[in-house]
């Protein structure tokens, strides 16, 4: 096969004469945009990446600001290792801990559902978020192998059978929490 062409059936889908695609800015739309006269790219890919020496898009700045420790967003408090004992282990009510990372797609996917949980269960449950990359001791101690990881704590201990890894729908999240919270009140 000729390296200059990639064939799909009998249609040429790639040609080396196309210039490289270069990421210029961020857009939440996720579409390719036509080139502007000032760029050398044939199309500009939209993503959350920023070129070195350039300011990040406003949405990325807002996201970073919302992830600072102690920040409260949608009823969820982001904590770190130094706050874990007081916020989670010494809490007088159940605490849902969400281990996340800013680069984790499934974490961003379930973020609205977790915010919904924080509002819907605010009388029965505290919701906190822990950044995976900034808290390696907690990650090691609680054996967080996949992201996002959800763990419910009560009376300073992990509730048995409360650990969940990976993205989950809002409906499944509600079923999971109802079952865990019911098991805590019965026990």
From TrEMBL:
CDD domains: TRX_family. Transmembrane segments: none annotated. It comes from the Eukaryota. This is Uncharacterized protein. GO terms for cellular component: cytoplasm. It comes from Punica granatum (Pomegranate). Gene3D superfamilies: Glutaredoxin. InterPro entries: Thioredoxin, Thioredoxin-like_sf, Thioredoxin_domain.
């Amino acid at each position: 096969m000729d390296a200059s062409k990639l064939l799909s059936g009998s249609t040429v889908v790639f040609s080396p004469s196309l210039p490289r695609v270069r990421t210029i800015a961020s857009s939440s739309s996720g579409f390719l945009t036509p080139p502007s006269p000032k760029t050398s790219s044939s199309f500009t890919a939209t993503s959350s990446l920023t070129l070195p020496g350039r300011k990040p898009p406003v949405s990325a700045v807002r996201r970073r600001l919302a992830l600072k420790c102690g920040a409260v967003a949608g009823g969820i408090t982001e904590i770190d290792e130094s706050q874990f004992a007081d916020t989670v282990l010494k809490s007088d009510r159940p605490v849902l801990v969400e281990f996340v990372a800013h680069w984790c797609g499934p974490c961003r996917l379930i973020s609205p559902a977790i915010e919904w949980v924080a509002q819907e269960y605010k009388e029965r449950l505290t919701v906190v978020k822990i950044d995976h990359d900034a808290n390696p001791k907690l990650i090691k101690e609680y054996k967080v192998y996949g992201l996002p990881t959800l763990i419910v704590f009560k009376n300073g201990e992990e509730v048995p059978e409360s650990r969940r890894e990976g993205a989950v729908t809002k409906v499944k999240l509600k079923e999971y929490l109802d079952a865990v919270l019911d098991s805590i009140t019965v026990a």
